[in-house]
Design a protein that fits this description.
CATH class: Alpha Beta
Number of domains: 1
CATH topology: TIM Barrel
CATH architecture: Alpha-Beta Barrel
Radius of gyration: 18 Å
Strand content: 5-15%
Shape: globular
Low-confidence stretches: none
Distance between the termini: 58 Å
Structural class: alpha/beta
Number of strands: 8
Order of helices and strands: EHEHEEEHEHHEHHEHH
Largest sheet: 5 strands, parallel
Mean pLDDT: 95
């Protein structure tokens, strides 16, 4: 399995607080079948892409010394902001530095008016945005078909394991199921922050995915599709289907 979204880099954001935690997170994931962990720290507060890559190299050395058989790939979780319009293509963190795919987070409660502008700007630089955990966004929970416009624009969708496992409430869980069952999402990742509060639980979610969408589709979501992103050559093979809300009928007695 490949985990496309984690906050495993120690001491850079609200994820792993220290190296000990980061190593423990990697060990836990590796022992349960995760082969690749993408380090995607929140990209703010003066953090630079060069600094992220340097810290990933340091973490790789620490994991090798600890004999933990997991590969760490550099990335970042970008917050949707007009500041992204000012960055050159080589300044925008992409998975493995391949210049092809980036992880992009939206505000939880309201989608900003400049959203389309930022998405278009990234794509003109040759970068495909992977939108992180939209099942947790208020507007998507109200109407899951909101993501169709992003997919039609060429973006991709990543669902959180915590949503599938019910850790973000019933609305996020229901929305995650809709996105997955209608091929409105291409990836599932842990968004792990620690061992306890938000753990690297991709293996647990995989078991639920098999029940939800079948073994073949589950394998695509947690292994085959993420591998394509890291290689820089992923193209979706499944067409998204709109969600049609079931109508409720009531029987009235006379």
């Amino acid at each position: 399995m490949i985990d496309l979204h984690t906050h495993i880099l120690p001491g850079v954001d609200d994820g792993a607080a220290d190296l000990e935690t980061a190593v423990a997170m990697a060990r836990s994931a590796a022992e349960r079948g995760v082969e690749v962990i993408c380090a995607t720290p929140h990209y703010y507060g003066g953090l630079t892409w060069q600094a992220v890559q340097k810290q990933v190299e340091s973490l790789r050395r620490q994991l090798a010394q600890a004999q933990i058989p997991v590969e760490v790939v550099a990335g970042a979780e970008l917050m949707l902001d007009t500041d992204l319009l000012k960055l050159g293509s080589d300044e925008i963190p992409t998975y493995g530095g391949n210049g092809r795919f980036c992880l992009l987070e939206f505000p939880m409660y309201e989608l900003p008016m400049y959203l389309e502008q930022v998405l278009f700007s990234l794509q003109t630089k040759g970068i495909t945005p992977i939108i992180a955990h939209p099942e947790r966004y208020r507007e998507v929970m109200a109407d899951p078909n909101v993501v169709l416009a992003w997919l039609e624009q060429g973006c991709l969708i990543q669902v959180n394991t915590g949503s599938i496992l019910g850790r973000f409430g019933s609305a996020a869980a229901a929305t995650a199921e809709i996105l997955l069952e209608h091929d409105l999402a291409q990836f599932v990742a842990s968004d792990a922050h620690s061992l306890k509060r938000r753990p690297p639980d991709l293996p647990e979610a995989y078991a639920v995915l098999v029940q939800l969408v079948g073994a073949e589709r589950a394998g695509e979501l947690v292994e085959h599709n993420p591998r394509g992103v890291i290689a820089g050559n992923f193209t979706p093979k499944r067409a998204p289907r709109p969600f049609v809300k079931k109508r409720r009928f009531f029987l009235f007695r006379r």
